[in-house]
Here is the input.
Amino acid sequence: MDSKWIWWKHGVIYQIYPRSFYDSNGDGIGDIPGIIEKLDYLKDLGIDAIWLSPVNTSPMHDFGYDISNYRDIDEIFGSKKDFRELIKEAHLRDIKIIMDMVVNHTSHMHQWFIESRSSLDNPKRDWYIWRDGKNGKPPNNWIAAFGGSSWEKYAHTGQYYLHSFVKEQPDVNWRNKELREAMYNEMRYWLDRGVDGFRLDVVNWFMKDENFRNNTLSLRPQQLQKHRYDRNRPESHEIMKEIRQVVDSYKDRMLVGEVFSLPPGDPKLSASYIGDGTDELHMAFDFSMIYKRWNARTVYRTIARWMEIIPENGWPCHVLSNHDQPRSISRFGGGSDAIKRARVAATLLLTLKGTPFIYYGEEIGMRNISISRKDIQDPLGKRYWPLYTGRDPARAPMQWSSEENAGFTRGTVWLPVHRNYRRVNVETDAADKYSMLNHYKSLIRIRKKKKALHMGDWTPLIKGVDSIIAYTRECEEQKIFVVLNFSNGVRKLTLNDRGQWRVISSTHKFVNEHFTDIDFKVMPYEATIVQRIGAL
Ligand code: GLC
Ligand code: CA
Here is the structure.
């Protein structure tokens, strides 16, 4: 086993949605100086790296996931100087910075696209995907993730361009060698400036079918067609390999990729983007967990499947929430048990083998906001309301204090703050020893302190039977045992592993309490971690 501390493997990563983290200048939108102000909070929380959703220049048709200049920072978020400062200040605190690289598409305002669309023979024409229509209709039947045809006609040349998301997000042509090289240069630009890694957006969409064949119809819910020809093309792996080489020519950098799949998730597909564990992404997100109900068996199977499919030399990562999905606490069922479930979920996330990603606000138990039509910002919400309210509910401002606007801004918030902010906020939680925040903090601290938890093997012992998941984490001399009760009932637990055990974290038992053998009651929604301190 590798016993050297590797930040992206053994640390904890925190995702910030910059618009909603902290607003330093009162315009109602979070910004980079705001993040800098909160670095001490993050240090105290104990995280090792921040993944920032995009802060590059963007006309914000998809809130930064439509980049018009990879080398600059959008003024809404600050300046390049602010970003340099962020890297410096984060590094001073041993916190790494991961940038979002959105390279499946650019903004329609990107200079490359403006050139590309200008004429049929522009040198950058082939940097995007242009095609003639068929009898006055789009070139084929592909439909965009955000609705409608994936093709948009550009009157000036009469051809159509491909956009897998909104029409302001033209897909680039990864088959073009010059485009590839240009993209790698944009990556090198930030690696040269000390960025520690990238989160790559929708990696499984980079390459499209060479012959632009029509997709066939799908009978699955939420999906009108099988995206066989516009997503998940095997050729996308080639690109991963090249990007990996770019990143590996720098020391200690990391790539994590979003492998987009619809419910119930596709762990095999996600894992395939790690390649043999050394030649594609360092880590891939799989959303299977996000798509599952609160049920111990289901959750166990989902994790087991994910662990099993990670290649021998690869490394898993785990995620409960992100800026595209409803918040975990809201997903796992409302009512008074929600917060108890969230504690169990946090214990799971932070004791599994694999890098945990925490979405901002989860550490204080932030919930989805409910949103009215007039407040919707997300293009998806605008399009599908009221069938689907979009992604805004999980993107609300961070709840810092019980002051107005939850202490997020002195201006007018860009998205409503959750109405529970007077009760649920960082300030209140910090003062309460038993709060969610302190639960997270102690879990992160323990994970870091115990080698078995950040490096050790994972061995499941109870696989969801009777609503219990239990496993050990073990390395060299250390053995740690984790038990999670997913139900509101009391369970009796007896394990055939004799010895002395000490509680190191628990929602119910006393820390430092000793047990001879694991033979105890597990209370409703109990999450307990014990360490073996000696044989019998
Ligand atoms: C990814 C992002 C999402 C964005 C989409 C298009 O799924 O996470 O927020 O809308 O890609 O870039
Ligand atoms: Ca601001």
